[in-house]
Amino acid sequence: MNAPILQLHNISYSYHSLDGEIPALTDISFSVRQGEFLAVVGPSGCGKSTLLSIIARLLTPEGGTIAFRNPDGSLNYPKTGYMLQHDHLLEWRTILGNVTLGLEINRQKTPERIAFAEKLLEDYDLYKFKDKHPGELSGGMRQRAALIRTLVMNPDILLLDEPFSALDYQTRLAVSGDIGNIIRTTGKTAILITHDLSEAISLADRIIILTGRPATVKKEVAVTLTKTDDSLLAARSAPEFQHYFNLLWKELSHEKP
Ligand code: ADP
Asked: pLDDT averaged over the chain?
């Protein structure tokens, strides 16, 4: 089993507003291994996005420690990719222009990196749309383009904050399956926040269940599904699927939003 590349130890965080202190996270501890796909579920408003912002180092925890490590155990600041509910593609740029935006901003738009972006577009069936604009693509294709924009930067860890929740149900099923497979084939470490229990079970290796606010880890569930292939349908048809669903439902039904 791979070594942990991310370790959170007793993380706590509160927001401070004119109305007073809003404790969002308390005593959160867990680790994530290289190449692992972790899902985080919890009641709405419990602190899931706050947790992701701390992992992305957009917020500094008030208490506890967070450590990123290389596979040899040395400390590291990983390159982090973020994917949100909305794709935030720039409508006036082409798809290729969008997926190479990060390279441009970071002055890394070399022929090799552009070729890498084009290869990703080719691998994930968007190459023939590279000169189109986002408005000409379906919601699912846009979300795939958003993932490619992130992968082009070659992140060590992908943070996914409800990335499928703006999509209609059918597209959501197709796109979450596609994106799950892309992440697995690229061997990336991923942390997915979702309120969709079926999505968490079908995509993740392990699920962290958070309590109501201030969130702490209520339970960790390792997911093992007997699948005939890598499709989302195979995951959802696995004999163990209902067991995990019932377990998560039971744990969460005791938590107040
Ligand atoms: P979740 O992602 O689980 O829905 P969040 O992490 O977005 O929850 O928010 C956790 C709690 O912190 C919520 O009660 C929310 O209202 C509060 N909160 C989030 N951002 C701020 C902020 N900038 N200022 C004050 N309170 C905030």
From this structure: 90
